Amino acid sequence: MKLSVSGRASAVAVVAAVTLVATGSIAGAAPAPEAVTHGSTALAAAPDIPVADVKAHLTQLQSIATANGGNRAHGRAGYKASLDYVKAKLDAAGFTTTVQQFTSSGRTGYNLIADWPGGDTGKVVMAGSHLDSVTSGAGINDNGTGSAAVLEAALTVARTDYQPTKHLRFAWWGAEELGLVGSRYYVNSLSAANRAKISGYLNFDMIGSPNPGYFVYDDDPAIEKTFKDYFTGIGVPTEIETEGDGRSDHAPFKSAGVPVGGLFTGAGRTKTTAQATKWGGTAGQAFDRCYHSSCDTTANVNDTALNRNADALAYAVWTLSA
Fold first, then answer.
1. Which of the residues 152, 176, 177, 224 is marked catalytic?
2. If DSSP codes are grouped into helix, strand and coil, which group holds residue 166?
3. Cα maximum dimension of the chain
4. Helical H segments across 94-168, by residue range
5. 3-state DSSP helix/strand/coil percent for the chain, to nearest 5?
6. Which residues does residue 98 pair with via DSSP β-bridges, in sequence order?
7. How much is the pTM?
8. pLDDT digits (tens, 9 = 90+) for 276-319
9. d(CA 101, CA 109)
């Protein structure tokens, strides 16, 4: 998640190169999903996303940061290596990937877009996360957690040969920490017609905070309800997300009129006594004491929160694209 306005580095994106996403069509068999029960209604759900698989991606991102000056920041070798890691996984799984290049703060940045062939390209469901860290650390909760969960959900689409009615697109954004530069560049690169084809953008930024809360964006009502239905089904109460409102990659989409939603487990704000009673954890302590710090490593992740949010991510992708 990017810094607040007072602490944000200024950034101006300059066009360097852009290739718009191509799509195709391949038929596949949809999996027989499990069900989450909400009252008397059985809600279709995605296959379970094993948290061990998500954590394996986090281990790789940590290794990349360690080998590249301790971070995965915009314009640094660690960011490009992170993008190459994600892209290789998606290419091997059969996605159509596009690397979108831009310049910000005098350094080259990259977005990665991955399309799953098939589905109605006039109705696109997108899920995305920012892949960059700040320069002070590896950025494993912020935002390795979102990036790894989106990656594993995409790989699950391929592994199950899911054939949704709508078209699925996944994205990993560059230079979010400099002011949502990559996602804004992507949205601004789209024609009005192509923006109108996006029926929903789902954002995942910090979903494994060590002292977690369970926060749902309250932007688009249908997307919000989808996430809330999932958490109700597993007996986990939620609250409306306010700490990061407008400070992550959903903001450019929302400004362009695209329905948006997402999940968040908290950053620098302090967990209240009422929240600790509701969710466990430690009252009077930040949701993430290592936010934007060098201690944001693989040790800075709550497995239960990561597991629940990865499953909620997949549930929303399956539900909204069916």
1. 176
2. strand
3. 56
4. 146-159
5. 40, 20, 40
6. 113
7. 0.89
8. 999 999 999 999 999 999 999 999 999 999 999 999 999 999 99
9. 6
Task: Extract the tokens encoding 146.
Answer: 């979102």
- Model confidence at 18, pLDDT cuts 50, 70, 90, reads very low
Q: How far apart are CA 45 and CA 10, in angstroms?
A: 41
Q: What's the CA gap between 209 and 237, in Å, rounded?
A: 16
Amino acid at 59: T
User: What pLDDT sits at residue 25?
Assistant: 28
* DSSP H stretches of helix in the chain: 51-66, 77-93, 146-159, 181-189, 192-196, 221-233, 250-255, 273-279, 303-321
Helix 77-93 to helix 51-66 angle, to the nearest 10 degrees? 140
115: its two tokens: 């399309």
Question: Contact, 147 vs 307, CB < 8 A?
Answer: no
Tokens representing 92 are 């091997």
- Residue appearing with tokens 């002070």: 136
Lateral strand order in the sheet of 13-17 = 13-17, 96-104, 107-116, 166-173, 120-130, 198-204, 260-264, 215-216, 239-240
Q: How far apart are CA 85 and CA 92, in angstroms?
A: 11
| Contacts by 298-302, CB closer than 8 A, 24 or more apart | 298/55, 298/58, 298/59, 298/62, 298/138, 298/140, 300/140, 300/141, 300/210, 301/55, 301/58, 301/140, 301/141, 301/145, 301/208, 301/210, 302/208, 302/209, 302/210, 302/211, 302/212, 302/265
Is 176 in the active site?
A: yes
Phi-psi category of residue 106: left, alpha or beta, with phi > 0 → left and psi -120 to 50 → alpha: left
